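[Automated response] Your request has been received and processed.

Submitted sequence:
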Amino acid sequence: MSRQFRAIQISKTDKGQKLDFVTLNENDLMPGDVTVAVEHSTVNYKDGLAVTGRAPIIRQFPLIPGIDFAGTVVSSANPLIKPGDKVILNGWGVGESHHGGFAGLARVKGDWLVAVPDNMTTAETMAIGTAGYTAMLCIIALERQGVRPENGEILVTGAAGGVGSIAIAILSKLGYRVAASTGRLEEESFLKGLGASQVIDRNEFSGPVKALGKTRWAGAVDAVGSATLANVLSQILPEGTVAACGLAQGMDLPASVAPFILRGVKLIGINSVTAALTRRVEAWSRLARDLDRAKLKDLTSHARLDDVPAIAADIVAGKIRGRVVIDI
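Generated structure:
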């Protein structure tokens, strides 16, 4: 008998997008060799854009949104995955062109899945979510470029958001001094509780871009883009590195080549959507080891599937701090 499940479904209309809560069955899922009973999902910034229609994230209609999920395998034709396995999905067009995680069931390619680390629950993996997984990829990139705690302070932009909050928690545990840039200065105590040594008004990075600014940072994790990223690049110490993973302020980069050719600054782009399996496994292994679980709990709240539309609107408006787990 085909299993039934509840889901959010986004349809296209003459006036734009339409969101419905629907009951579907297994036959409504898209092709894949593994079917997962979804236990938890989360609302990332990209999910906010997709659900609200603020950006053309969804490329096929009707579609179940949700770019990540974690749960238990119920059936598998993949020789490496068996029923009962606990798995995580991040990226691969899920929630964009393939039915995603805001549903009770998901069917995907087994190659897209990563095993839940032994010492983590599915709820914890979604407290991390794609945002936290991306933060870990950024930190690994900084390390591979030789950025060490003794080199100087690390700047994290968009600090109160999903990527920023997880990045601060991990970096501080690894021994880095972290400066948190945010437009929500009322979150100072929250950010310092995660491990930030100082909190900076984001307006310091939003003004006119200088070709070269006063050097301040050994490295940075940037989830904002545009003028903020350009200003950050102008302030990086010689041979420092910026890992860029977001575009909350915009896709443009009004920067000069001066930091790159006069200071040897490196700009590393982070693609979390189609990262190779080895990189995904490394990132989740590091998250299981290097993220303080108590801090993760402090920055996480829980909600229901019915709450997703309101949370999506709030995350796009910059009103959500930390991470929101959707308990399916």
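Summary generated for your ticket: The CA atoms of residues 124 and 296 lie 8 Å apart. Residues 122-144 form the longest helix (23 residues).
If you did not submit this request, please reply to this message.
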